[in-house]
Design a protein that fits this description.
Strand content: 35-45%
Helix content: 25-40%
CATH topology: Nuclear Transport Factor 2, Chain: A
CATH class: Alpha Beta
Strand order of the largest sheet: 2-1-6-5-4-3
Distance between the termini: 21 Å
Shape: globular
Order of helices and strands: HHHHEEHEEEE
Structural class: alpha+beta
Largest sheet: 6 strands, mixed
CATH architecture: Roll
Length: 188
C-alpha cells in the first residue's frame, strides 16, 4: 500500500511512489486562490464534525474542485500537518510538514485530476473539557489509478467557547509491521 502523502504527491506529480528528494521538489507549489469563507456551524459543532468536514472538503471525483475555503475555515490560524511515514526504500522515518494552505497548494491539482478521495473507517474521541483528540482511521482511493491506502489521522482540536478548531493533524500510513489497530477497524 502507498502512504497517504505518497498518494497525494503521486496524484500531484503523476507518480505512484515519490522518494523524499522528489517530495522536496513538490514544496515549490503554485499559488492557489482560496476564498475565505465562514465556517459552517455544523462543521465546527464538535470534534467529530470537524473530521467529517475535513475529509469531505479534500475528497472528490476526477475533475471535481476541492472545497479549500471550507477546509481552511476548520483550522486555527497556527495549525499544521505532520506526516510521519517510513521511506520504503531506506526504511527511515520521513517527516513531511505543512500548513493547511501549503497542503492545499501542493496537492490541489493532483487531487482534482486523479479523483483522490478519503473516508473514515472508524474513530475514537478523547475529550477533556475544551480540548479533544480524535484518532481516526482512514482509507484513501485514487480513482484514476485505483491506488488504495489506509492509515490513522490524529486530530488535535479545541473549543474556544463558540466553536471547535483543528490545531493539528498528524498521520502515519498502514504498512507491514504497522497495521491499523483492531479497535480502529470499525464493525466487521
Amino acid at each position: 500500500m502507498k502512504t497517504r502523502w505518497a498518494l497525494c504527491i503521486a496524484a500531484t506529480a503523476g507518480l505512484l511512489a515519490a522518494p523524499p528528494a522528489l517530495r522536496a521538489q513538490e514544496k515549490a507549489a503554485k499559488h492557489l486562490d482560496i476564498p475565505t469563507v465562514a465556517a459552517r456551524p455544523e462543521d465546527v459543532a464538535s470534534p467529530d464534525a470537524l473530521v467529517r468536514a475535513d475529509l469531505a472538503s479534500i475528497s472528490g471525483d476526477v475533475g471535481v474542485p476541492r472545497q479549500w475555503g471550507r477546509d481552511l475555515s476548520l483550522y486555527d490560524e497556527h495549525a499544521y500537518f505532520v506526516s510521519a511515514e517510513v521511506d520504503p526504500k531506506t526504511g527511515k522515518i520521513v517527516l513531511e510538514k505543512a500548513t493547511p494552505r501549503e497542503y492545499a497548494e501542493r496537492n490541489d491539482a493532483g487531487l482534482v485530476s486523479t479523483g483522490f478521495m478519503e473516508h473514515e473507517i472508524a474513530h475514537k474521541t478523547y475529550r477533556f473539557g475544551n480540548v479533544a483528540t480524535v484518532v481516526s482511521s482512514y482509507e484513501t482511493h485514487v480513482r484514476k489509478t485505483g491506488s488504495v491506502a489506509r492509515g490513522v489521522n490524529i486530530y488535535q482540536t479545541y473549543f474556544d467557547g463558540k466553536r471547535w478548531w483543528i490545531l493539528s493533524i498528524v498521520w502515519d500510513s498502514e504498512r507491514p509491521g504497522n497495521p491499523i489497530p483492531a479497535d480502529l477497524m470499525g464493525k466487521s
